[in-house]
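Posting this for the archive.
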Amino acid sequence: MGSSRRPILFVSYAESGLLNPLLVLAEELSRRGVEDLWFATDEKGRSDIAAATVKTPVEFASLGEVVPQMSAVTWDDETYREVTQRSRFKAHRAVIKHSFEPASRVEKYKRLEAIVDEVRPALMVIESMCQFGYELAITKGIPFVLGVPFVPSNVLTSHVPFAKSYTPGGFPVPHSGLPLDMTFAQRVENQLFRLRTLGMFMTSSMRKVVEEDNRIRKELGISPEARQMMARIDHSEMVLCYSVPELDYPFPVPDKMRLVGAMVPPLPQAPDDDGLSDWLDAQQSVVYMGFGTITRLTREQVGALVDVARRLADGHSVLWKLPKEQQELLPPREELPDNLRIENWVPSQLDVLAHPKVEVFFTHAGGNGYHEGLYFGKPLVVRPLWVDCDDQAVRGQDFGVSLTLDHPQTVDADDVVDKITRVLTDSTFRERAEHFSKLLRAAGGRAAAADLLLGLPVLSEPALAND
């Protein structure tokens, strides 16, 4: 006997850069009245999931508390310095070293398995960094869609030689920050990046970790197919990438990857913003500084950015999203320039970027920020932080929508003022950003993603009766 029940289970880590795009999609399905929506993430995301309900419920399924090894927000300062150092390979190696902890995902896998056994999803929608999510889907044979908040080549290019890759040979390795048009030295660096990544796993310490990983996979019953280099791509029903082809270097994108542009909810997202919109309305020109949830600034860097605001005071205001714990590094209030407004949190970064008085977005160029800034036609100044940020930074500069700081580690005030001033005064940056804005909007965003999801055969075919 058939059943109409076709549950959709979203799975993501609770870090906002990974969680938010899937939240926008879940909310869109709820707005359309789609039944049986579930969202599995850490307890930290419980209130965010509750807020995604519009018409039909989005049920929260708890994966427990955040595991420190899985969340960059919880890493200690020494680890933070290692993963954000300017040597792109050493930073890449540090990220692998600190995040490749096989035992840390055991509890998450078991919790998700219990949720899957209860919900019996017809489809899972899994954030691309959530390894235990797609491992479970592949093992249990559950159809899944992969969500990608980066440029498409990030998940389609192998980090090691001799492995399957959807991009051509010689394509920039993810996290290398290298351009497509490389010098001879850069081509050598690109190949070494792959070889050194492979070499990491041949050290005695890493071999022990791999052995532990093998043991855990066997205990959990994870399918060997889930370990293949491109397993999350090859076994997915579809890959939803929140970008457009023109924001990456050209290569043949596989048919199953659908580029839908930035995932932006209906705006205003936060109409009650405690007077922030009124302040923006009253300004002549605004530079918005927001560096994501992971960035940790030093006292010297905070002081340099205050100086930047002071030097922009002739004609420009600065809105700075600075976490409360880092505001302790600010100079005394009486020494702050009048054109600087500091918020420990803005109710909606999207509302800020959409505001016509905001002319430049000073960002770390994470996947979401990079695409959201350009969605609203804002040129960028980039202080790249880590992993994908350098890749998006080099593409943005090559495509004429951004400039990257020469000294991102030290935050040299002269360097920052120079880049912001150039982006403000050279109209070509704005024109190029507006060009990409049109492309991102035309891609369809949340509406296109929801249409594609609901059009999958697995959701349109008659359901089997539940046991």
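The chain has two domains: 8-261+444-460, 276-442. The chain has a mean pLDDT of 94.
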